[in-house]
């Protein structure tokens, strides 16, 4: 087995979601694949209340973290310890997502190759009913002095890792990383490096065949994660297998904004008409409110079906439909409801950018979507003063369904009215 270095990590948190939760404790054990080299652990002040049920689970209370360092104070230590090492954890994506989220809030990226001891255990130690850390400790007779504390969980994960390394050597596995990724089904015309270097950010991706034709276009809040989901799919049908086998390269466009990703994906699909978008793609917006004699709630069978509003969740669609239906029954003009009230005149809609110090903007002229662009806080601040010299935007076609894609996002965007005679510099479309 090639000589590799590893950082075995465990974090304790305020909840289960990295979007709303924070880290309360972290432990890092540096390992050379045979033995521990050094270790580090610390409590972290999460700058938020720890729910009581979490304290009951972990034993970490509000008082314990009150004087602990903030994440930014230990961030450099984490970078230094994990640099050039493979990130190992039990259910690695959980710990990795929390650490990446903490760094993202500081304006930094955190990217490491990952190795999951859950996935490895399933492959190398088959037959257990559960692969939770607690059950593996029981089955393998490993002692965890304080479950759900970062250092103790990391130490027992380190012991498990050593068992997995030994087992892999016994059966002649040369690379644990490659073995763990087996089942990804890396396409024959691609190498794993292309997958490893995909961005883990919001944007659009285009998959090409060897002739340079676009096979598939998609968007995701985490491009790399979405591509891996494609590759881990159960490709039982011939067309699905043919799709993966045809991949040659992947082009990505980071947007920072989910709305811009939606609009750009819509634009590119209509432009290129990829074969497998029709064969495989099921719209995430599978429910819509459509206007006939009266408004109706409808399951959308076609990605391009026109609707007043589109939703990914039936429950959300039903709630909004009832709201609009009541408005309609009161004799009100449906288009004047706030859900469907599109900004009048010429406006700029501000959204997240690709970096912490950047904003994105969408230019709309009398309900027609012209395009999108980016600027730093200083440049975006010029909107307030009606100064637009030098600001460029990527032109988009105003398709009939573009408006229904934009409407659900309006309530979360800052809307700035601009003079009708102001000019921007359009860039050629994607």
Topology at a glance:
Blueprint lengths: L5 E8 L9 E9 L4 E8 L8 H7 L3 H5 L4 H12 L3 E4 L2 H14 L8 E3 H8 L8 H8 L9 H21 L5 H5 L11 H5 L6 E6 L5 E7 L2 H9 L6 H8 L3 E6 L3 H15 L2 H6 L6 E5 L3 E5 L9 E3 L2 H16 L16 E7 L5 E8 L2 E9 H5 L10 E4 L6 H5 L7 E4 L7 E3 L3
Parallel strand pairs: 1-4, 4-5, 15-17
Antiparallel strand pairs: 1-2, 2-3, 6-7, 6-8, 9-10, 9-11, 12-13, 12-16, 13-14, 14-15
Helix pairs in contact: 5-7, 6-7
Structural account:
The protein has 16 helices and 17 strands. Helix 5 packs parallel to helix 7. It has 430 residues and is of the alpha+beta class. The strands form four sheets. The protein has a six-stranded mixed sheet. It has a five-stranded mixed sheet with strand order 3-2-1-4-5. Strand 9 (287-291) and strand 10 form a beta hairpin. The protein has four domains: 6-180, 2-Layer Sandwich (Nucleotidyltransferase, domain 5), CATH 3.30.420.10; 192-258, GIY-YIG endonuclease (3-Layer(aba) Sandwich); 287-336; 346-427, no CATH class. 35% of the residues lie in helices and 23% in strands.
Low-confidence stretches: none
Distance between the termini: 45 Å
Q: How many helices? A: 16
- Major sheet attributes: 6 strands, mixed
Tally of separate domains: 4
How many strands? 17
β-sheet strand percentage: 15-25%
CATH architecture of the largest domain: 2-Layer Sandwich
Percent helix, as a range, is 25-40%
How big is the Rg? Answer: 25 Å
**CATH-derived topology of the largest domain:** Nucleotidyltransferase, domain 5
Strand order within the widest sheet? 16-12-13-14-15-17
CATH level-1 class of the largest domain: Alpha Beta
Structural class: alpha+beta
Shape: globular
- Average pLDDT reading: 84
Full CATH superfamily name of the largest domain: Ribonuclease H-like superfamily/Ribonuclease H
């Amino acid at each position: 087995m090639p000589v590799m270095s590893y950082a075995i990590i465990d974090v304790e948190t305020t909840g289960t979601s990295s979007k709303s939760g924070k880290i309360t404790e972290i432990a890092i054990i540096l390992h050379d694949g045979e033995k521990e080299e050094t270790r580090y652990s610390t409590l972290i002040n999460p700058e938020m209340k720890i729910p009581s049920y979490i304290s009951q689970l972990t034993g970490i209370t509000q008082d314990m973290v009150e004087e602990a360092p903030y994440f930014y104070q230990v961030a450099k230590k984490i970078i230094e310890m994990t640099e050039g090492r493979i990130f190992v954890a039990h259910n690695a994506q959980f710990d990795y997502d929390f650490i990446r989220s903490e760094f993202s809030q500081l304006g930094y990226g955190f990217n490491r190759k990952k190795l999951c001891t859950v996935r490895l255990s399933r492959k190398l130690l088959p037959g257990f009913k559960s692969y939770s850390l607690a059950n593996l400790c029981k089955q393998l007779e490993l002692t965890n002095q304080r479950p759900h504390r970062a250092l103790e969980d990391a130490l027992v994960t380190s012991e498990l890792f050593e068992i997995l390394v030994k087992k892999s050597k016994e059966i002649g596995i040369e690379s644990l990383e490659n073995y763990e990724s087996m089942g990804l089904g890396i396409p024959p015309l691609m190498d794993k490096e292309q997958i490893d270097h995909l961005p883990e950010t919001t944007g659009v991706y285009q998959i090409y065949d060897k002739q340079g034709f676009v096979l598939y276009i998609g968007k995701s809040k985490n491009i790399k994660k979405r591509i891996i989901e494609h590759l881990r799919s159960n490709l039982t049908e011939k067309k699905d297998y043919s799709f993966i086998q045809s991949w040659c390269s992947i082009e990505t466009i980071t947007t920072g904004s989910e709305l811009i990703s939606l609009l750009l994906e819509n634009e590119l699909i209509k432009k290129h008409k990829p074969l497998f978008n029709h064969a495989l793609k099921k719209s995430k917006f599978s429910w819509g409110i459509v206007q006939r004699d009266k408004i109706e709630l409808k399951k959308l069978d076609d990605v391009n079906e026109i609707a007043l509003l589109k939703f990914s969740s039936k429950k959300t669609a039903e709630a909004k439909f009832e709201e609009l239906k009541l408005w309609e029954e009161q004799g009100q003009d449906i288009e004047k409801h706030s859900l469907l009230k599109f900004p009048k005149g010429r406006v700029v809609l501000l959204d997240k950018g690709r970096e912490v110090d950047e904003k994105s903007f969408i230019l709309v002229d009398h309900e027609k979507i012209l395009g999108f662009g980016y600027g730093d806080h200083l440049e975006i601040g010029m909107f307030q003063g009606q100064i637009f010299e030098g600001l460029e935007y990527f032109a988009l076609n105003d398709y009939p369904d573009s408006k229904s894609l934009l409407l659900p996002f309006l309530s979360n965007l800052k809307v700035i009215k601009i003079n009708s005679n102001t000019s921007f510099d359009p860039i050629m479309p994607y």
